[in-house]
Amino acid sequence: MAQKGDLRYLTKRLFRDEILASQIVNIVRGYWELLRSKGVEEVKIMNFCGTHEYTTTHYGIRSILPPGVNLVAGPGCPVCITPSFYVEAAVKLALEGVTLYTYGDAYRLPAVREVGGCRSLSEARMMGADVRVVYSFLDAVRDAAKHGKPSVFLAVGFETTCPAYASAIANNLVPENLTLIVAGRLTPPAARFSVERVGTVSGVIAPGHVSTITGAGVWRFLPEEYGIPTVVSGFEPLDVMIAISLILRQIMDGEPRLQIEYSRTVTMEGNRRAKELLARVFDVVDAAWRGIGFIEKSGYALKESVSQYDAFSRYGMREPNRSEWSHDLLPGCICGQVIIGAAKPTDCRLFMKRCTPGTPYGPCMVSAEGSCSIWARMGGRGVVEEVL
Amino acid sequence: MCLGVYGKVLRVDGELAVVDFGGGLTKDVLVGVEDVREEDYVVVHAGVIVSRLSEKDFTAVFDFIEEAAKHLAQSKSEAATYLAQIRSRLEENLSTSK
Ligand code: SF4
Question: Per the domain annotation, does A380 fall within a domain?
Fold first, then answer.
Protein backbone atom coordinates (compact mmCIF):
# COMPACT_ATOMS: atom_id res chain seq x y z
CA MET A 1 0.00 0.00 0.00
CA ALA A 2 1.56 3.24 -1.17
CA GLN A 3 0.38 5.21 1.80
CA LYS A 4 1.64 2.82 4.44
CA GLY A 5 3.60 4.69 7.05
CA ASP A 6 3.14 8.04 5.28
CA LEU A 7 2.80 10.48 8.15
CA ARG A 8 0.94 13.00 5.99
CA TYR A 9 -1.73 10.46 5.20
CA LEU A 10 -1.83 8.98 8.70
CA THR A 11 -2.28 12.42 10.26
CA LYS A 12 -5.38 13.04 8.21
CA ARG A 13 -6.81 9.58 8.91
CA LEU A 14 -6.07 9.48 12.61
CA PHE A 15 -6.81 13.05 13.62
CA ARG A 16 -10.04 13.23 11.66
CA ASP A 17 -11.38 9.81 12.62
CA GLU A 18 -15.07 10.05 13.43
CA ILE A 19 -15.27 7.29 16.02
CA LEU A 20 -12.20 8.56 17.82
CA ALA A 21 -13.74 12.03 17.70
CA SER A 22 -16.90 10.81 19.37
CA GLN A 23 -14.84 9.18 22.14
CA ILE A 24 -13.02 12.44 22.74
CA VAL A 25 -16.29 14.37 22.77
CA ASN A 26 -17.42 11.96 25.50
CA ILE A 27 -14.24 12.60 27.44
CA VAL A 28 -14.74 16.37 27.16
CA ARG A 29 -18.33 16.01 28.30
CA GLY A 30 -17.26 13.74 31.15
CA TYR A 31 -14.80 16.30 32.44
CA TRP A 32 -17.30 19.08 31.99
CA GLU A 33 -19.91 17.22 34.08
CA LEU A 34 -17.35 16.77 36.84
CA LEU A 35 -16.48 20.46 36.68
CA ARG A 36 -20.15 21.42 36.77
CA SER A 37 -20.66 19.28 39.84
CA LYS A 38 -17.91 21.34 41.45
CA GLY A 39 -19.88 24.51 40.67
CA VAL A 40 -17.97 25.70 37.58
CA GLU A 41 -20.36 27.49 35.22
CA GLU A 42 -18.10 28.60 32.40
CA VAL A 43 -14.59 28.07 31.12
CA LYS A 44 -13.03 30.34 28.55
CA ILE A 45 -10.32 28.73 26.42
CA MET A 46 -8.28 31.02 24.21
CA ASN A 47 -6.30 30.10 21.10
CA PHE A 48 -3.44 32.13 19.64
CA CYS A 49 -3.35 30.90 16.10
CA GLY A 50 -5.55 31.65 13.12
CA THR A 51 -5.21 28.04 12.03
CA HIS A 52 -6.64 26.85 15.37
CA GLU A 53 -9.55 29.24 14.90
CA TYR A 54 -9.98 27.89 11.38
CA THR A 55 -10.02 24.28 12.62
CA THR A 56 -12.42 25.18 15.43
CA THR A 57 -14.84 26.92 13.11
CA HIS A 58 -14.46 24.82 10.00
CA TYR A 59 -15.10 21.55 11.84
CA GLY A 60 -17.85 23.06 14.00
CA ILE A 61 -16.03 22.23 17.23
CA ARG A 62 -17.90 24.93 19.14
CA SER A 63 -21.20 23.30 18.31
CA ILE A 64 -20.22 19.92 19.79
CA LEU A 65 -18.89 21.34 23.04
CA PRO A 66 -21.00 21.69 26.18
CA PRO A 67 -22.48 25.22 26.26
CA GLY A 68 -20.30 26.30 29.21
CA VAL A 69 -17.08 25.58 27.32
CA ASN A 70 -16.36 28.78 25.47
CA LEU A 71 -13.62 28.93 22.81
CA VAL A 72 -12.20 32.38 22.15
CA ALA A 73 -9.79 33.48 19.43
CA GLY A 74 -6.81 35.56 20.57
CA PRO A 75 -4.14 37.28 18.46
CA GLY A 76 -3.41 34.62 15.89
CA CYS A 77 -3.27 36.38 12.58
CA PRO A 78 -0.04 38.19 11.70
CA VAL A 79 -1.62 40.05 8.80
CA CYS A 80 -4.49 41.43 10.92
CA ILE A 81 -2.10 42.98 13.43
CA THR A 82 0.27 44.52 10.88
CA PRO A 83 0.17 48.26 11.59
CA SER A 84 -1.27 50.50 8.94
CA PHE A 85 1.95 52.50 8.55
CA TYR A 86 3.77 49.52 7.02
CA VAL A 87 1.06 49.20 4.39
CA GLU A 88 1.17 52.94 3.74
CA ALA A 89 4.96 52.81 3.35
CA ALA A 90 4.70 49.83 0.99
CA VAL A 91 2.03 51.52 -1.13
CA LYS A 92 4.12 54.71 -1.32
CA LEU A 93 7.20 52.80 -2.51
CA ALA A 94 5.16 50.78 -5.01
CA LEU A 95 3.67 53.96 -6.49
CA GLU A 96 7.18 55.42 -6.75
CA GLY A 97 8.25 52.55 -8.99
CA VAL A 98 9.73 50.04 -6.54
CA THR A 99 8.76 46.40 -7.15
CA LEU A 100 6.79 45.32 -4.11
CA TYR A 101 6.52 41.70 -2.96
CA THR A 102 4.30 40.22 -0.30
CA TYR A 103 2.05 37.27 0.59
CA GLY A 104 -1.50 37.00 -0.71
CA ASP A 105 -3.19 38.05 2.53
CA ALA A 106 -1.11 41.19 3.01
CA TYR A 107 -1.71 42.16 -0.62
CA ARG A 108 -5.29 43.23 0.13
CA LEU A 109 -4.64 44.55 3.66
CA PRO A 110 -6.16 48.05 3.84
CA ALA A 111 -4.34 51.04 5.30
CA VAL A 112 -6.15 53.64 7.36
CA ARG A 113 -4.81 56.55 5.35
CA GLU A 114 -4.82 56.72 1.56
CA VAL A 115 -1.50 57.13 -0.20
CA GLY A 116 -1.75 58.49 -3.75
CA GLY A 117 -5.41 57.49 -3.80
CA CYS A 118 -4.67 53.89 -2.77
CA ARG A 119 -5.39 52.11 0.47
CA SER A 120 -3.75 48.77 -0.26
CA LEU A 121 -1.13 47.12 -2.41
CA SER A 122 -3.87 45.59 -4.54
CA GLU A 123 -5.19 49.08 -5.29
CA ALA A 124 -1.64 50.25 -6.06
CA ARG A 125 -1.35 47.44 -8.60
CA MET A 126 -4.57 48.58 -10.23
CA MET A 127 -2.91 51.99 -10.58
CA GLY A 128 -0.08 50.34 -12.49
CA ALA A 129 2.40 49.68 -9.67
CA ASP A 130 4.55 46.55 -9.88
CA VAL A 131 3.18 44.49 -6.96
CA ARG A 132 3.90 40.77 -6.94
CA VAL A 133 2.28 38.16 -4.70
CA VAL A 134 4.57 35.28 -3.73
CA TYR A 135 4.24 32.05 -1.74
CA SER A 136 7.55 32.43 0.04
CA PHE A 137 10.40 34.87 0.61
CA LEU A 138 12.64 32.56 -1.40
CA ASP A 139 10.42 33.08 -4.47
CA ALA A 140 10.85 36.86 -4.10
CA VAL A 141 14.62 36.50 -3.63
CA ARG A 142 14.91 34.53 -6.88
CA ASP A 143 12.61 36.81 -8.83
CA ALA A 144 14.31 40.01 -7.64
CA ALA A 145 17.75 38.58 -8.43
CA LYS A 146 16.56 37.89 -11.97
CA HIS A 147 15.25 41.37 -12.82
CA GLY A 148 17.64 43.41 -10.65
CA LYS A 149 15.22 46.35 -10.20
CA PRO A 150 14.83 48.12 -6.82
CA SER A 151 12.55 45.81 -4.81
CA VAL A 152 11.00 45.62 -1.36
CA PHE A 153 9.41 42.72 0.50
CA LEU A 154 6.64 43.54 2.99
CA ALA A 155 7.80 41.02 5.56
CA VAL A 156 4.92 40.24 7.89
CA GLY A 157 4.63 37.16 10.10
CA PHE A 158 5.11 35.54 13.47
CA GLU A 159 7.97 33.35 14.69
CA THR A 160 7.14 30.70 12.10
CA THR A 161 7.52 33.00 9.10
CA CYS A 162 10.48 35.10 10.23
CA PRO A 163 13.11 32.32 10.00
CA ALA A 164 12.63 32.52 6.21
CA TYR A 165 13.90 36.11 6.23
CA ALA A 166 16.64 35.32 8.74
CA SER A 167 17.85 32.27 6.85
CA ALA A 168 18.02 34.03 3.48
CA ILE A 169 19.82 37.04 4.96
CA ALA A 170 22.25 35.02 7.08
CA ASN A 171 23.12 32.83 4.11
CA ASN A 172 23.72 35.82 1.80
CA LEU A 173 20.98 34.76 -0.60
CA VAL A 174 19.27 38.17 -0.77
CA PRO A 175 20.31 40.25 -3.82
CA GLU A 176 21.54 43.82 -3.34
CA ASN A 177 18.41 45.30 -4.96
CA LEU A 178 15.98 43.64 -2.48
CA THR A 179 15.27 45.14 0.95
CA LEU A 180 12.64 44.36 3.60
CA ILE A 181 9.99 46.23 5.52
CA VAL A 182 10.25 44.06 8.62
CA ALA A 183 6.87 43.77 10.34
CA GLY A 184 7.55 40.44 12.12
CA ARG A 185 6.01 39.96 15.54
CA LEU A 186 6.35 37.59 18.51
CA THR A 187 3.30 35.81 19.92
CA PRO A 188 4.07 35.26 23.64
CA PRO A 189 4.11 39.01 24.52
CA ALA A 190 0.74 39.40 22.76
CA ALA A 191 -0.60 36.38 24.64
CA ARG A 192 0.45 37.98 27.92
CA PHE A 193 -1.18 41.24 26.85
CA SER A 194 -4.43 39.47 25.93
CA VAL A 195 -4.82 37.32 29.05
CA GLU A 196 -4.18 40.41 31.17
CA ARG A 197 -6.80 42.42 29.28
CA VAL A 198 -9.42 39.69 29.03
CA GLY A 199 -8.79 38.68 32.62
CA THR A 200 -10.98 35.57 32.74
CA VAL A 201 -9.05 33.13 30.57
CA SER A 202 -9.28 29.63 32.07
CA GLY A 203 -7.16 27.79 29.54
CA VAL A 204 -4.92 28.38 26.54
CA ILE A 205 -4.48 26.35 23.36
CA ALA A 206 -0.96 27.44 22.41
CA PRO A 207 0.09 27.65 18.75
CA GLY A 208 1.70 24.47 17.47
CA HIS A 209 3.74 25.78 14.58
CA VAL A 210 5.03 28.87 16.39
CA SER A 211 6.12 26.44 19.11
CA THR A 212 8.07 24.28 16.63
CA ILE A 213 10.43 27.28 16.43
CA THR A 214 10.26 28.83 19.89
CA GLY A 215 9.84 25.59 21.80
CA ALA A 216 6.81 24.96 24.00
CA GLY A 217 8.83 26.32 26.92
CA VAL A 218 8.00 29.94 25.97
CA TRP A 219 4.44 29.32 27.21
CA ARG A 220 5.49 28.34 30.74
CA PHE A 221 4.66 31.81 32.02
CA LEU A 222 0.95 31.16 31.47
CA PRO A 223 0.58 28.39 34.09
CA GLU A 224 3.38 29.69 36.29
CA GLU A 225 2.50 33.39 36.47
CA TYR A 226 -1.21 33.39 35.65
CA GLY A 227 -2.29 29.91 36.76
CA ILE A 228 -3.66 29.17 33.28
CA PRO A 229 -3.63 25.54 32.03
CA THR A 230 -1.82 25.58 28.69
CA VAL A 231 -1.65 22.94 25.97
CA VAL A 232 0.41 23.25 22.77
CA SER A 233 -1.82 21.73 20.14
CA GLY A 234 -1.75 20.53 16.55
CA PHE A 235 -4.20 21.66 13.92
CA GLU A 236 -6.38 18.69 13.06
CA PRO A 237 -9.83 18.66 14.66
CA LEU A 238 -8.91 15.88 17.09
CA ASP A 239 -5.75 17.72 18.12
CA VAL A 240 -7.89 20.65 19.21
CA MET A 241 -10.47 18.39 20.91
CA ILE A 242 -7.74 16.56 22.83
CA ALA A 243 -6.20 19.90 23.87
CA ILE A 244 -9.60 20.99 25.22
CA SER A 245 -9.97 17.77 27.20
CA LEU A 246 -6.47 18.20 28.66
CA ILE A 247 -7.27 21.77 29.69
CA LEU A 248 -10.52 20.70 31.38
CA ARG A 249 -8.65 17.95 33.19
CA GLN A 250 -6.07 20.44 34.45
CA ILE A 251 -8.79 22.81 35.63
CA MET A 252 -10.45 19.92 37.45
CA ASP A 253 -7.24 18.84 39.13
CA GLY A 254 -6.46 22.45 40.04
CA GLU A 255 -2.95 21.96 38.72
CA PRO A 256 -2.27 24.33 35.86
CA ARG A 257 0.75 23.32 33.82
CA LEU A 258 2.18 23.21 30.33
CA GLN A 259 1.49 20.15 28.18
CA ILE A 260 2.41 19.34 24.60
CA GLU A 261 -0.36 17.63 22.68
CA TYR A 262 1.45 18.24 19.37
CA SER A 263 4.42 16.09 20.40
CA ARG A 264 4.77 14.69 16.90
CA THR A 265 6.56 17.88 15.95
CA VAL A 266 6.93 20.23 18.96
CA THR A 267 9.59 19.97 21.67
CA MET A 268 10.16 22.03 24.82
CA GLU A 269 13.34 23.58 23.35
CA GLY A 270 12.14 24.23 19.80
CA ASN A 271 14.20 24.59 16.68
CA ARG A 272 17.73 25.53 17.72
CA ARG A 273 18.93 26.39 14.26
CA ALA A 274 16.01 28.70 13.49
CA LYS A 275 16.37 30.41 16.85
CA GLU A 276 20.07 31.00 16.20
CA LEU A 277 19.31 32.47 12.77
CA LEU A 278 16.64 34.75 14.22
CA ALA A 279 19.03 35.95 16.93
CA ARG A 280 21.78 36.55 14.39
CA VAL A 281 19.65 38.75 12.14
CA PHE A 282 17.02 40.39 14.37
CA ASP A 283 16.83 42.39 17.57
CA VAL A 284 13.65 42.03 19.62
CA VAL A 285 12.13 45.47 20.16
CA ASP A 286 8.96 47.12 21.47
CA ALA A 287 6.57 47.12 18.53
CA ALA A 288 3.15 48.33 17.43
CA TRP A 289 0.20 45.97 16.88
CA ARG A 290 -2.66 47.19 14.76
CA GLY A 291 -5.60 48.51 16.72
CA ILE A 292 -3.78 47.75 19.97
CA GLY A 293 -0.63 49.89 20.15
CA PHE A 294 2.85 49.08 21.38
CA ILE A 295 3.60 45.84 23.19
CA GLU A 296 6.93 45.46 24.93
CA LYS A 297 9.55 43.25 23.27
CA SER A 298 7.08 41.98 20.69
CA GLY A 299 8.67 42.80 17.35
CA TYR A 300 11.64 41.90 15.18
CA ALA A 301 13.94 44.62 13.80
CA LEU A 302 17.01 44.08 11.62
CA LYS A 303 20.28 44.26 13.51
CA GLU A 304 22.73 47.07 12.74
CA SER A 305 25.06 44.52 11.12
CA VAL A 306 22.49 43.70 8.43
CA SER A 307 20.90 47.14 8.12
CA GLN A 308 21.68 47.19 4.40
CA TYR A 309 18.56 45.01 4.02
CA ASP A 310 16.33 47.58 5.72
CA ALA A 311 13.93 49.21 3.27
CA PHE A 312 13.26 52.15 5.55
CA SER A 313 16.90 53.22 5.68
CA ARG A 314 17.47 52.53 1.98
CA TYR A 315 14.55 54.76 0.98
CA GLY A 316 15.00 57.47 3.65
CA MET A 317 11.93 56.54 5.71
CA ARG A 318 11.50 55.58 9.34
CA GLU A 319 8.96 53.85 11.56
CA PRO A 320 6.77 55.92 13.87
CA ASN A 321 7.75 55.60 17.51
CA ARG A 322 5.47 55.03 20.46
CA SER A 323 4.43 58.68 20.78
CA GLU A 324 3.84 59.06 17.02
CA TRP A 325 1.74 55.91 16.66
CA SER A 326 -1.94 56.60 16.22
CA HIS A 327 -4.97 54.35 16.39
CA ASP A 328 -5.01 52.54 13.07
CA LEU A 329 -8.47 51.14 12.57
CA LEU A 330 -11.22 52.66 10.47
CA PRO A 331 -14.25 54.08 12.33
CA GLY A 332 -16.59 51.37 13.63
CA CYS A 333 -14.10 48.49 13.20
CA ILE A 334 -13.48 46.76 16.54
CA CYS A 335 -10.62 44.51 15.36
CA GLY A 336 -8.50 45.71 18.29
CA GLN A 337 -11.01 43.99 20.60
CA VAL A 338 -11.55 40.96 18.35
CA ILE A 339 -7.80 40.35 18.11
CA ILE A 340 -7.27 40.07 21.85
CA GLY A 341 -10.39 37.95 22.34
CA ALA A 342 -12.31 40.67 24.19
CA ALA A 343 -15.04 40.72 21.51
CA LYS A 344 -16.45 38.24 18.99
CA PRO A 345 -16.67 39.14 15.29
CA THR A 346 -20.48 39.13 15.63
CA ASP A 347 -20.18 41.88 18.27
CA CYS A 348 -19.12 44.26 15.49
CA ARG A 349 -21.99 46.28 14.01
CA LEU A 350 -20.34 46.14 10.60
CA PHE A 351 -19.93 42.34 10.51
CA MET A 352 -21.52 40.97 7.32
CA LYS A 353 -23.08 44.35 6.62
CA ARG A 354 -20.49 46.95 5.61
CA CYS A 355 -17.72 44.37 6.13
CA THR A 356 -17.77 41.04 4.26
CA PRO A 357 -15.09 38.73 2.81
CA GLY A 358 -15.89 40.14 -0.65
CA THR A 359 -15.67 43.77 0.52
CA PRO A 360 -13.50 43.70 3.65
CA TYR A 361 -13.46 46.88 5.69
CA GLY A 362 -11.21 45.91 8.61
CA PRO A 363 -8.00 43.85 8.75
CA CYS A 364 -9.59 40.81 10.48
CA MET A 365 -11.86 40.37 7.46
CA VAL A 366 -9.06 40.57 4.87
CA SER A 367 -6.79 37.76 5.90
CA ALA A 368 -8.04 34.19 5.51
CA GLU A 369 -6.81 33.66 9.07
CA GLY A 370 -8.56 36.67 10.55
CA SER A 371 -11.33 35.79 13.00
CA CYS A 372 -13.91 37.91 11.19
CA SER A 373 -13.14 36.29 7.86
CA ILE A 374 -13.25 32.78 9.36
CA TRP A 375 -16.57 33.45 11.11
CA ALA A 376 -17.98 35.07 7.97
CA ARG A 377 -17.06 32.13 5.77
CA MET A 378 -17.86 29.31 8.19
CA GLY A 379 -19.98 30.72 10.97
CA GLY A 380 -19.22 30.77 14.67
CA ARG A 381 -21.46 29.55 17.42
CA GLY A 382 -24.16 31.97 18.38
CA VAL A 383 -24.59 33.53 14.98
CA VAL A 384 -27.98 31.93 14.37
CA GLU A 385 -29.15 32.58 17.92
CA GLU A 386 -28.11 36.18 17.59
CA VAL A 387 -29.58 36.73 14.16
CA LEU A 388 -32.95 35.01 14.66
CA MET B 1 -0.30 32.31 6.09
CA CYS B 2 0.58 30.57 9.36
CA LEU B 3 -0.49 27.33 7.82
CA GLY B 4 2.18 24.67 8.14
CA VAL B 5 2.08 22.01 5.44
CA TYR B 6 3.40 18.48 5.85
CA GLY B 7 5.78 17.24 3.20
CA LYS B 8 8.38 14.59 2.48
CA VAL B 9 11.97 15.55 1.71
CA LEU B 10 13.14 14.34 -1.69
CA ARG B 11 16.57 16.00 -1.85
CA VAL B 12 18.77 18.19 0.32
CA ASP B 13 21.30 20.53 -1.24
CA GLY B 14 22.98 22.77 1.33
CA GLU B 15 20.51 25.42 2.45
CA LEU B 16 17.86 24.25 0.01
CA ALA B 17 15.70 21.15 -0.12
CA VAL B 18 13.11 19.78 -2.51
CA VAL B 19 9.95 18.72 -0.71
CA ASP B 20 7.05 16.64 -2.01
CA PHE B 21 3.69 17.89 -0.72
CA GLY B 22 1.69 15.10 -2.31
CA GLY B 23 -0.64 15.32 -5.27
CA GLY B 24 2.30 15.89 -7.62
CA LEU B 25 3.34 19.16 -5.98
CA THR B 26 7.03 19.58 -5.20
CA LYS B 27 8.76 22.79 -4.20
CA ASP B 28 12.19 24.20 -3.35
CA VAL B 29 12.28 25.31 0.25
CA LEU B 30 14.84 26.64 2.71
CA VAL B 31 16.16 24.19 5.28
CA GLY B 32 15.34 25.69 8.66
CA VAL B 33 16.24 22.72 10.89
CA GLU B 34 19.34 20.72 11.67
CA ASP B 35 20.10 17.37 10.04
CA VAL B 36 17.31 17.13 7.51
CA ARG B 37 17.63 14.00 5.42
CA GLU B 38 15.95 12.51 2.40
CA GLU B 39 12.71 10.69 3.26
CA ASP B 40 12.15 12.79 6.39
CA TYR B 41 8.62 14.06 6.98
CA VAL B 42 8.71 17.76 7.71
CA VAL B 43 6.50 20.75 8.44
CA VAL B 44 7.00 23.51 5.86
CA HIS B 45 5.91 27.02 6.60
CA ALA B 46 6.06 29.87 4.04
CA GLY B 47 8.85 28.13 2.17
CA VAL B 48 10.97 27.00 5.13
CA ILE B 49 11.25 23.63 6.84
CA VAL B 50 10.44 24.60 10.43
CA SER B 51 10.24 21.16 12.00
CA ARG B 52 10.41 17.43 11.47
CA LEU B 53 7.55 15.03 12.14
CA SER B 54 8.53 12.36 14.59
CA GLU B 55 7.38 8.84 13.89
CA LYS B 56 8.29 7.87 17.41
CA ASP B 57 5.99 10.46 18.95
CA PHE B 58 3.20 10.04 16.45
CA THR B 59 1.10 7.82 18.69
CA ALA B 60 2.07 9.60 21.94
CA VAL B 61 -1.23 11.40 21.91
CA PHE B 62 -2.93 8.08 22.67
CA ASP B 63 -1.40 8.16 26.13
CA PHE B 64 -3.56 11.19 26.88
CA ILE B 65 -6.75 9.75 25.45
CA GLU B 66 -6.36 6.36 27.07
CA GLU B 67 -5.54 7.89 30.41
CA ALA B 68 -8.55 10.19 30.19
CA ALA B 69 -10.87 7.34 29.22
CA LYS B 70 -9.58 5.35 32.19
CA HIS B 71 -9.85 8.31 34.48
CA LEU B 72 -13.47 8.74 33.56
CA ALA B 73 -14.05 5.08 34.36
CA GLN B 74 -14.64 4.09 30.78
CA SER B 75 -11.75 1.68 30.68
CA LYS B 76 -13.91 -1.35 30.03
CA SER B 77 -16.04 0.46 27.52
CA GLU B 78 -16.06 0.22 23.75
CA ALA B 79 -13.97 3.37 23.72
CA ALA B 80 -11.03 1.66 25.34
CA THR B 81 -11.23 -1.29 22.99
CA TYR B 82 -11.39 0.97 19.95
CA LEU B 83 -8.47 3.06 21.17
CA ALA B 84 -6.33 -0.01 21.81
CA GLN B 85 -7.14 -1.40 18.37
CA ILE B 86 -6.29 1.79 16.52
CA ARG B 87 -3.09 2.31 18.45
CA SER B 88 -1.77 -1.15 17.71
CA ARG B 89 -2.70 -0.91 14.02
CA LEU B 90 -0.93 2.42 13.77
CA GLU B 91 2.16 1.20 15.50
CA GLU B 92 2.28 -1.79 13.20
CA ASN B 93 1.80 0.45 10.19
CA LEU B 94 4.62 2.75 11.25
CA SER B 95 7.04 -0.02 12.16
CA THR B 96 6.66 -1.83 8.84
CA SER B 97 6.88 1.26 6.68
CA LYS B 98 10.65 1.62 6.65
S1 SF4 C 1 -16.32 42.75 11.04
FE2 SF4 C 1 -14.92 44.03 9.84
S3 SF4 C 1 -15.09 46.04 10.72
FE4 SF4 C 1 -15.92 44.61 12.22
S5 SF4 C 1 -14.20 44.06 13.56
FE6 SF4 C 1 -14.26 42.56 11.92
S7 SF4 C 1 -12.86 43.35 10.37
FE8 SF4 C 1 -13.34 45.08 11.75
Answer: no
CATH code of the domain in which A247 resides:
3.40.50.11750
Q: Report the length, in residues, of chain A.
A: 388
| CATH number of the domain bearing residue A118 | 3.40.50.11740
Rounded to an integer, what distance in angstroms lies between the CA atom of residue A308 and that of residue A376?
Answer: 42
Q: What is the pLDDT of residue B76?
A: 53
Locate the ligand 1 atom nearest the alpha carbon of residue A360 and give its number: 2
CA of A364 to the centre of ligand 1 (A): 6
Q: Which of A360, A358, A295 is nearest to A333 (CA)?
A: A360
Ligand 1 center from residue A365 Cα (angstroms): 6
Residue nearest to atom 3 of ligand 1 (CA): A333
Please tell me the CATH code under which domain B5-53 is placed: 2.30.30.140
Pocket lining for ligand 1, CB < 6 angstroms: A 333-335, 338, 345, 348, 350-351, 355, 361-362, 364-365, 372
Residue A324: inside a domain, yes or no?
A: no
Instruction: Please report how the helices A272-281 and A162-170 are oriented relative to each other, as an axis angle in degrees rounded to 10.
Output: 70
CB pair distance less than 8 Å for B54 and A263? yes
Query: Which three-class secondary structure state does DSSP give residue B52?
Result: strand
- Is B7 an interface residue toward A (CB < 8 Å)? yes
pLDDT tens for A241-292 read 999 999 999 999 999 999 999 999 999 999 999 999 999 999 999 999 999 9
Please indicate, yes or no, whether residues A15 and A64 belong to a single structural domain of this protein: yes
Point out the residue among B48, B57, B79 whose CB comes nearest to the CB of A23.
Answer: B79
Could you report the per-residue pLDDT of A102-151, keeping only the tens digit for each? 998 899 999 999 999 999 999 999 999 999 999 899 999 999 999 999 99
Instruction: Put residue A128 in one of left, alpha, beta given phi > 0 → left and psi -120 to 50 → alpha.
Output: left
Give residue A355's domain range. Answer: 335-375
Distance CA B13, CA B33 (A): 13
Q: What is the pTM of this model?
A: 0.89
Chain B residues within an 8 Å CB radius of A164: 30, 32, 45-48
Inter-chain CB proximity A264 and B32 less than 8 Å: no
Is A194 contained in some domain? no
A345 C-alpha to ligand 1 centroid (Å): 7
Q: Where are the domains of chain B?
A: 5-53, 56-96
Give the nearest partner residue to A246 out of B22, B64, B69, using CB atoms: B64
Total number of domains in chain A: 3
Cβ within 8 Å of A, B 71-90: 71-72, 74, 79, 82-83, 86, 90
Same domain, A245 and A285: no
Q: Strands of A131-133's sheet, edge to edge? A: A131-133, A99-102, A151-157, A178-184
Residues 6+ apart with CB under 8 A from A244: A28, A45, A61, A65, A69, A71, A203, A205
